[in-house]
Amino acid sequence: MALLRQLKRIFWATTKRTAERRYEKVLALREVYVAAQPEVAPVFTSLEHHWPKLVNAIESERIPLTNNTTELVIRRFAQHYQNFCGFHSIETAERYLVVFEWCYRLTPFTHDAQQRIRGKCPLELAGYDVSTLPMAQLCRGQLLGWPPEGLADVVPKP
Hints:
This protein is mainly α. It has 2 domains: 2-57; 69-151, no CATH class. 54% of the residues lie in helices and 0% in strands. The protein has 8 helices and no strands. It has helices at residues 2-12, 16-28, 30-36, 41-54, 69-82, 90-106, 122-125, 134-139. The mean pLDDT is 80.
């Protein structure tokens, strides 16, 4: 349990310098932990192998700390929410969340994303064809320059 807490503390660090110091302390205890519990040896091997790439995410706004899509959406929503004073009611917050989820799912990744996902939205990466969805076109900025008469077939009338 102590090892798990120490490993988590490495990634709770807000600066690379702190993370590096914590990482070195954990590695210094490798022999002690492996002698007591040999099954933890692969944990240390994996940490050493992946550390050069993992440390790059600390203090970086471009590299996410996780590749879990759900966590990324929740984190982004939390960051966005912190910029507001709050919502008037739970219903307003729920409506905002629905719009946020749709925009997130339909907005393509930028040119500086990994090449395999560049220019594609999360739904396209999941295998969906979103090319005919007006909301997807709007998220790509394709509808903004259209004349109003061109939108007549796409946007429903109230």
